[in-house]
Amino acid sequence: MDSRSIAAAIDRFERRALDRPDLRHSAVAIAVVEEAEGPAFLLTRRAATLRRHAGQWALPGGRIEPGETASEAARRELAEELGLHLPAEAELGALDDYASRSGFLITPVVFWAGSPGELTPDPGEVGEVHRVPLKLIDVEPRFISIPESDRPVIQLPLFGRFVHAPTGAILHQFREVVLHGRDTRVAHYEQPVFAWR
């Protein structure tokens, strides 16, 4: 799988934007990198010292500043969090918006990062950074019920643990769209209660 095949899969997909002016608009980056064993993407564990969502699995990203596009914000966050500077033409497309329980409307933007070399994570934001082979997310998620919601909570198996929404939902859609060519929607999947704040 290369940048052309990923871009073609996303281009074929009809992205759904959400109209939620009550939420703060943010963007995350699915940055695909070339590894010896095949393509991978960059996934972080948030620093343990952060006030919100400390230690959680996350895609690099953050709030969209006034005048920024989702792509510009995602590229800025990649540079700030991981020291990875990508040009505008690295963008391959975007997936569906996801409305988080913590008040953010998240736009996932997919990039081809090639062979970025050594990354320089910001220790104030990033506890760990992993280059995750795409084959590791080509798995069926687990769905559980919680008394606080009638929506299914998605849990994506990874590293012997589970990645929850929004990250787990976004990665599941990436898997469905890019690896299997399926127009799977994930905006209705719930987050665990600990991520609501």
Automatic annotation (TrEMBL):
<dbReference type="InterPro" id="IPR020084">
    <property type="entry name" value="NUDIX_hydrolase_CS"/>
</dbReference>
<dbReference type="InterPro" id="IPR045121">
    <property type="entry name" value="CoAse"/>
</dbReference>
<protein>
    <submittedName>
        <fullName>NUDIX domain-containing protein</fullName>
    </submittedName>
</protein>
<feature type="domain" description="Nudix hydrolase">
    <location>
        <begin position="23"/>
        <end position="154"/>
    </location>
</feature>
<keyword id="KW-0464">Manganese</keyword>
<dbReference type="Pfam" id="PF00293">
    <property type="entry name" value="NUDIX"/>
</dbReference>
<dbReference type="InterPro" id="IPR020476">
    <property type="entry name" value="Nudix_hydrolase"/>
</dbReference>
<dbReference type="GO" id="GO:0010945">
    <property type="term" value="F:coenzyme A diphosphatase activity"/>
</dbReference>
<keyword id="KW-0460">Magnesium</keyword>
<comment type="similarity">
    <text>Belongs to the Nudix hydrolase family.</text>
</comment>
<dbReference type="GO" id="GO:0046872">
    <property type="term" value="F:metal ion binding"/>
</dbReference>
<keyword id="KW-0479">Metal-binding</keyword>
<dbReference type="InterPro" id="IPR015797">
    <property type="entry name" value="NUDIX_hydrolase-like_dom_sf"/>
</dbReference>
<dbReference type="InterPro" id="IPR000086">
    <property type="entry name" value="NUDIX_hydrolase_dom"/>
</dbReference>
<keyword id="KW-0378">Hydrolase</keyword>
